[in-house]
């Protein structure tokens, strides 16, 4: 992660304004380039004649900046991996929760269906019982009406007979 020596060779050169030009394909972010352009903590740029010391210092700074950039990228990659794992766990948890909810709902639906069937059977049974009672009471009513008619007939006959007797007696 930047702590060990890199086997990659970076070749660079300073132009007349002491700007750095990367010769081999190393990409540097704008922030790295800006930091490299800042004057060194030793109190400003050295004159052009001290190029070897300046080159060593620049090489060191580039190596440090590259190490920092790699560490930052590695850290971001690790964060993305952790976030991916977290999202995957969350997705699995959501799926499990959803599956349990679906199973509970199915069980509740099945229970409601069975309850409805039970209630339908009870209603049918009550209807059959009511029909039996209805038939029984209609039969009883018919018997009572028949008896009442017979009683009325007998009573009417007895009344007529008694009326005839009274009328024959007092004539």
From TrEMBL:
GO terms for biological process: inner mitochondrial membrane organization. It is found in: Mitochondrion inner membrane. It is a lipid-anchor. It comes from the Eukaryota. InterPro entries: MIC19/MIC25, MICOS_subunit_Mic19. Residues 28-57, 108-129 are annotated as: Disordered. GO terms for cellular component: MICOS complex. Signal peptide: none annotated. Coiled coil: none annotated. Keywords: Disulfide bond, Lipoprotein, Membrane, Mitochondrion, Mitochondrion inner membrane, Myristate. This is MIC19 protein. It comes from Sterrhoptilus dennistouni. The gene is Chchd3.
């Amino acid at each position: 992660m930047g702590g060990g020596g890199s086997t990659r060779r970076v070749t660079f050169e300073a132009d007349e304004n002491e700007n750095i030009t990367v010769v081999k394909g190393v990409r540097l972010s704008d922030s790295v380039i800006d930091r490299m352009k800042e004057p060194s903590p030793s109190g400003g740029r050295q004159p052009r004649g001290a190029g070897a010391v300046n080159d060593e210092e620049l090489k060191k700074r580039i190596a440090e900046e590259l190490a920092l950039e790699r560490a930052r990228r590695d850290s971001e990659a690790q964060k993305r991996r952790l976030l991916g794992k977290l999202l995957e766990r969350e997705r699995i948890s959501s799926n499990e929760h959803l599956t349990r909810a679906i199973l509970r709902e199915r069980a509740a639906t099945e229970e409601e269906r069975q309850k409805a069937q039970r209630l339908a059977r009870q209603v049918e049974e009550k209807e059959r019982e009511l029909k039996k009672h209805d038939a029984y009471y209609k039969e009883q009513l018919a018997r009572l009406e028949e008896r009442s008619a017979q009683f009325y007939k007998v009573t009417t006959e007895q009344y007529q007979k008694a009326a005839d007797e009274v009328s024959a007696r007092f004539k």
